[in-house]
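Lecture notes, structural biology module. Today: joint structure prediction for complexes of two components.
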Amino acid sequence: MATEEASRHGAERVSALHLKLGALSGVVKEALQFSYDIACQGTSLEGSRLIIEDVPVVIHCPNCDEDRTVESIQHLQCDLCGELSAEVRQGRELQVVALELEKIEEFVS
Amino acid sequence: MSSEPRMVEVRQNVLKQNDLLARALRERFRAAGVLVVSMVSTPGAGKTALLEQTLTRLRNSGLRVAALVGDLATENDARRLARSEAPVRQIVTGTICHLDAQMVERALVDWSLDELDILFIENVGNLVCPSSYDLGEQLRLVLMSVTEGEDKPLKYPTIFNTADVAVITKMDLADAVEFDLRAARENIQAVRPGMKILELSTKTGKGSCEFLELLNSHREQGIATNPANVDGQLSTYVETAIP
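The predicted structure, tokenised, for the full assembly:
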């Protein structure tokens, strides 16, 4: 996906990939960081940086009628009133947000 | 010499291809009037045992049922399930630890869904990766057996969060392993508030009626909301954009 986007924008090299990673995405940040370099080998992303933005889980508390960030994905509970809520508003993201692109220009002496 | 890097906005889900395919599958299942139920659990929690029993019972009650079963290797599960005489197909994933929408689509290529009432998809035994992959199912069951301990939901909150119903299996062994049912229920509710929980034993038959009722009510619900069966009414299924 990233290589397609890069070539669509006429870029030859991707220097960084910005990714949103939700706490409930099912993906472990460390594993992703580890495998990223390997996955990029031989593509226009080779040598690029993976910049991960952690996205916490936000539930909607039906009691307070407000969105609340939860501390732990093991407890989807409103930190104010203690109500449990299954209405997850945020935190499932595994999304490429942006790319930093470079076009290698001809060397002019 | 490189020019200054420039930033372009992308905003695309990494699993977009899977999400789109799963959505198309869900639409196909709905149009064919088949309820698709997937099962996830650790290896050995009792997915195949429950499925074998369920396929047999549903077939005996006159429903047309079938199953897809995912494993890294061997066709043992398909052979076991074939004893129910329902159509069963094994998906051998090789080294892949989960099923994805494309594997499901490929496995269904020559099946006519119109001739089925309920299709089961047994995922590879794994509580981690299957949570990220939508298979187009309408109902996802997560199984945990009493021998695994009551804290399983806290260790794997993501998979419990993506599932619709929790099934606690091997209840006949609960006393022997001093399973704390109350704690297990609390843990499930903490990671997936409001989740329906069934207690089951394929050995004693505990909970099996409730399980069959659950499947039936979901099947009837599906038929009731299918626009093909409800004149002039729109589907309750709401289309939202996949980023």
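Point to remember: Chain B has one domain: 16-223.
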